Amino acid sequence: MTDAPIASGPYDVALLTPDEMASADRLTIAGGISGRTLMGAAGRAVAEVAQAMLGGPGGGGNGVRVACLAGPGNNGGDAFVAAETLRCEGVDVVVFSVCDIDRLAGDAAWAAAAYRGSVEPLGAFTGDGCALVIDGLFGAGLSRPLDAEIANLIETVERAGVPVLAIDLPSGLCGRSGAVLGKAFTADRTVTFFRPKPGHFLEPGRSHCGVLDVRQIGIAPDVLETIAPRQFVNRPALWRADLSLPVDAGHKYDRGHAVVFSGSASRTGAARLAAGAALRAGAGLVTLFSPAGAILVNAAQVTAVMVERCDGERDLARHLDDSRLKAFVLGPGFGVGGTARAYATQILKAGRFLILDADGISSFADRPEELFDEALGQAGEGGPNLVLTPHAGEFKRLFPDLAAKGSLSKLDRTREAAVRSGAVVVLKGRDTVIAAPDGRAAINANGTPWLASAGTGDVLTGMICAQLSQGTPTFEAACAGVWMHGRSAELFGPGLIAEDLAGQLPAMFAELLA
Ligand SMILES: NC(=O)C1=CN([C@@H]2O[C@H](COP(=O)(O)OP(=O)(O)OC[C@H]3O[C@@H](n4cnc5c(N)ncnc54)[C@H](OP(=O)(O)O)[C@@H]3O)[C@@H](O)[C@H]2O)[C@H](O)CC1
Ligand SMILES: [K+]
């Protein structure tokens, strides 16, 4: 079964919760494709990946042993199908079953009955002489922490250093939240079916999955019209069609005028990082609004980015008379306090786009509703006017209750924050989540560890600001900015610092627009 690409569009990058996946199963079976057909295709896909891990088709035929761990449900059923497929291909395979196979039911019982190889009790597994472990213990049906026997087995596998191929999810991992329930396998590869789950991309889940293979097993994409998933992997298929890009007959004002607020004379670098990124990412014009004391510092260090004095609300009110000023970045290096709050309120009241980051967010720490009330009243036809780009610490300042609610996944937490604030919320991390008040959310999956460096967050605000200034709808603008930021880091490679990111945007655009 090939991983045939689906027609490009948001549903191409949809994520399905375990419950939504079960609906996809049910709709497909109701449509006449049996659960056994799905399980057969799933198991054969697992066997194909196993052979690749063993050194290519037939690679398993050279006497190596493969251990298939089979759980009590359909995840175990997939394991039995994989085992029988490998056995027929000459692989020395043994199934270690968590229960007597006569206790299996439904499709799993069918798969176990079709398996002609040997079955051992799970407790007999030692890992000796084993070249690969296929984890078919638990998948989408995991509903509680693993018991001691399974947790000990995972430790046995880890001590033996045997590569692990997980079916659907590494056992112990919650497919909805990416949380580890007690203990979980750390797989080298994970094969999942039809569409990934949020838990494949949310930490720590993502770090437990290894290389993720998404295989098609016969579920038709049209089930997604019924399911209508609202979460996605953040990839260009989600927003590429919505990007506003330069047109032949256009001029710089068509691409929007972006503004970044500078901090005081000794704190201007962050704003310049954002401003430079905004210009490089596509804004037609970018101006640094600078306090008088920092004008010379800024003017001496920019060229195409312009500098204007802005010292207080009267200055800003005058600037806002220019309706061409489309999108504003407030926060990087700005300073925490009443001025930031006043500026943010003025910009939102003027119906302009505001990306609030760093000090801008912290300025509302003890009065978030002041900001939210303003934002909730200002959503335009393209979506919210406000984008918040907190890291976990800043998120906690605005949404302390959500940050403390352990039962929420990062996806849930960010979604609730978006509804409460009326903003598109970008909760940063290795698994950055972007959520809109209308319920849509995306989990970012690109980038490199080198992004954990001072100033990269400032650059991100500039990249998002550039999309907003050009007229891209708010949620798509934030998703595009986050993806461009991660891809720029990947293109640069090791040794990255914040100043290196904007310079990678031309190569990123060349790929994106090819
Ligand atoms: N379209 C698809 O994606 C397909 C998926 N397939 C595979 O099916 C599994 C889901 O199978 P399911 O039987 O629903 O669930 P699991 O096999 O993951 O779990 C089996 C049962 O285990 C029990 N359980 C849950 N947590 C624990 C735990 N910590 N310890 C012990 N037992 C646990 C639970 O039953 P309970 O009654 O005890 O609650 C589970 O039901 C999916 O992951 C895919 O691999 C299809 O085969 C092909 C199509
Ligand atoms: K599994």
UniProtKB/TrEMBL annotation:
Q: Which residues bind (6S)-NADPHX?
A: 74-78, 139-145, 168, 270, 333, 391, 458
CDD domains named among the record's database cross-references: YXKO-related (cd01171)
Q: Which PROSITE patterns match?
A: YJEF_C_2, YJEF_C_3, YJEF_N
Q: What does the record say about how the cofactor binds?
A: Binds 1 potassium ion per subunit.
* Start and end residues of each YjeF N-terminal domain: 21-225
* Binding-site residues for AMP, renumbered to this chain: K428, G429, R430, D431, T432, G457
Entry protein name: Bifunctional NAD(P)H-hydrate repair enzyme
Its cofactor is: K(+); Mg(2+)
The record, for SUPFAM superfamilies, names: Ribokinase-like, YjeF N-terminal domain-like
Provide the family line. Belongs to the NnrE/AIBP family.
Pfam families, per the entry: Carb_kinase, YjeF_N
